[in-house]
């Protein structure tokens, strides 16, 4: 829907109204704790401001990258980068740490190889390169957002709803100033309904469950687990849209195989143990 939105409407129009609808949804969800939420924001303003800044980068770059390289390629690079960072920063004993570092390096090589292939086969190398760069930068921002939001939840004792109620404020303010001059001509019942559905399905629901996950398992494990999303997206694309691109799907299949590989060390199936940032075994 984001890819379709950027084709129908100006980029900043889509970003602003998607963000506005999302902010309204989450503020209504925690309306009874809204004063408590923003009081915590003021008290821990450093962490809160970083969360908002990373959110600004994540969603702005998401729209730009999707417009340049398409939704599937954006997903692939964003979540591959997420897994790379998750493995790199995941705390573990020495032997497991070596495995994690190797996984990070292999994922980096895979992304560079696929990125080079896309750029050489694209109509515009510059556009393709920038699209990939924005996706990767968004991925880095997403990881550090997860770190700060997990820390904010621990410091302030806030729920996922409360964090989500304030994380989009800076993005909303910035996108307001970036709105095109002819914005009011585009505002009608059809475009607003479209933006509400986009905000609900493309932003509100995904980030709600994502934030719940971050609060429980921490940024590193979350970064690895969400990297399975491109594979699930690929399956849904085949089922609902009968879309299967060999190049994009090949990258996603290799990425998913690499993510599964550490669960089967030395050819023997072992229980996979995840530890959150508090040291609690999951």
Provide the structure class.
Answer: mainly alpha
The N- to C-terminal Cα distance equals 34 Å
Count all strands and give the number: 0
**H/E series:** HHHHHHHHHHHHH
Helix content: over 70%
| Largest β sheet strand count, sense and barrel closure | none
Unreliable stretches covering 5 or more consecutive residues? 266-272
Q: Round the mean pLDDT to the nearest integer and report it.
A: 87
Number of helices: 13
Provide the β-strand percentage band. under 5%
Query: What's the gyration radius in Å?
Result: 19 Å
**What does the overall shape look like?**
globular
Report on this structure:
- The chain contains 13 helices and no strands.
- With 282 residues, it is mainly alpha-helical.
- The relative contact order is 0.17.
- Residues 266-272 have low confidence and may be disordered.
SSE arrangement:
Blueprint: H1 2-8, H2 11-29, H3 34-43, H4 45-69, H5 71-89, H6 94-121, H7 125-156, H8 160-167, H9 169-177, H10 183-186, H11 189-225, H12 229-241, H13 246-260
Helix pairs in contact: 2-8, 2-9, 2-11, 3-4, 3-8, 4-5, 4-7, 4-9, 5-6, 5-7, 5-11, 5-12, 5-13, 6-7, 6-13, 7-11, 8-11
